[in-house]
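sanity check this record:
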Amino acid sequence: MFERSSNLSSGQTGIFALGDASHGFFEFALHEGVAIGDVIRTVANLRAAHTTVSGTNVVVGFRPELWRSCGALPAGVHGFNDLIAGPDGFAMPATQADAFVWLAAREYDGVFDLGVEIVTSLAPYAALIRESSGWSYRRSRDLTGFEDGTENPTLYEAPKVALIPSGVAGEGGSILLFQQWRHDTARWNALAQARQEEIIGRTKPDSIEFPEATMPADSHVSRSTLEKGGVELPIFRRNVPYGNVSEHGTTFIGFAAEQRRLHDMLAQMAGADGGPRDALTRYTTPLTGAYYFCPSPSALAQFVIDES
């Protein structure tokens, strides 16, 4: 585990920019023969031109194996290259891409306009293989009707959780787990509220976590909370709903300084750690799975072309 330095390098500001109602997610695959440096340079220059001052937050990330060829990264960080399977046949798919861009703004027009520019600028180097949009629902709830992110660290503590500390390779960067989970809303809504609360591990109206003595072992709270030696290892979550009336769900956006936290959480949820499978996964289906390394602004700045 990393030792936390008090001299914490700055991360991409969009990681911590809470409150945006509109989101766009873009995943790209490099064209054959294209150098990753060309993609990083293109994305870095677009990001440099569009800061939070313009009203649109930009977070960029890259397949860890590709970034390692151009920049620093902690040893062992890797893409989502293999599915995660539980003993009962449940599996989380691996759909790793090469580059990732997340745009967030108060209104969708900012996301749309900048998204068009990014896709057009990257077209000579990479193909857009997945695009999705996200939006806020009842302020802080997901489409199950429960509050999301109630155990998130505060914004004061979040950088300590999400960013690689100073003195470590890749300092100021963050490891992102990005997944789409489709909800089976009809089956979920057919459950009594009391049963929904057992599955989640919290009350629905006021989001009060069940006491340890009555917390179901397979609840979402139990299986998505990672502990080592009795100490909780948090993840900084920025989840948002996606989709439309006929098909929708949750976009999981989780940042951590250590990839192990993210991987172990997924293993727990699948029951691959020897424990029970997360009960919520019986009403949601993972459609995608990828890890991206989100470099620090100073690391990205090395690829920015100064046209002054």
